[in-house]
Amino acid sequence: MLLSARRVGSTGTVYGLDMTDDMLALAKRNAADAGVTNVEFLHGRIEEIPLPSNRVDVIISNCVINLSGDKRRVLAEAFRVLRPGGRFAVSDVVVRGAVPADVRRFMELWVGCVAGALEEEEFRTLLAENGFRDIDSEPTRVYRSEDAHVFLQDAGMDVSANLEQIDGKVLAAFVRATKPHDAQTHRPARSLVQAAPAAVCCGPACCP
């Protein structure tokens, strides 16, 4: 969040969004300690972003979307609040290919945030269905079976039958997409301040 505040410059605004009072309080303290003044903190959910349509240029988050129970709504809201030409650029956990439920339980013990992770192609499909273009998924880490073996074994689990199904299935990925310049959404009147660069950071205490 603090890095984002510097990127948008003194005339821009970063909106830090979180659903918990504790995280918002922590983010506000961090901003005050850093002397950052171009951040507005919003109490709300990523399924219902408390901003007007066409307000921001970039949406970023770090391992947040996988925690939502209504990912289609999350992506629809992201599309709504982005200005035409705006960018969706999030880091999240995704799953590559079909994974049986019992194997997901093994993976959840090993890598946090896996239970609700979207399958990689499903993520791309949902973005496209909500109007996004230029969709790209870039793996930043691929978890291998050898990474899991010691951890799961130490947890007292018989992992021999599951390691092959785990291998390469869990990814940390940077997912990017763009709202088209010709997107047909209502564009409200904006002041000069509102027209300056703006970003939404979901989970303000942990976003960059």
Written overview of the protein:
The structure is a single chain. The chain is α/β, with parallel strands linked by helices and 208 residues long. It has one domain (2-183, 193-202): Rossmann fold (3-Layer(aba) Sandwich), CATH 3.40.50.150. The chain has eight helices and eight strands, in the order αβαββαβαβαβααβαβ. The protein has helices at 2-8, 21-34, 71-81, 101-110, 120-129, 145-154, 163-166, 192-195; strands at 13-18, 39-43, 56-61, 82-95, 118-119, 133-143, 170-178, 198-202. Strand 4 (82-95), helix 4 and strand 5 form a beta-alpha-beta unit. The longest helix has 14 residues, at 21-34. It starts with a helix and ends in a 6-residue tail after the last strand. Residues 186-196 and 204-208 have low confidence and may be disordered.
Question: Characteristics of this structure?
Answer:
Rossmann fold, disordered C terminus, 8-stranded mixed sheet, alpha/beta
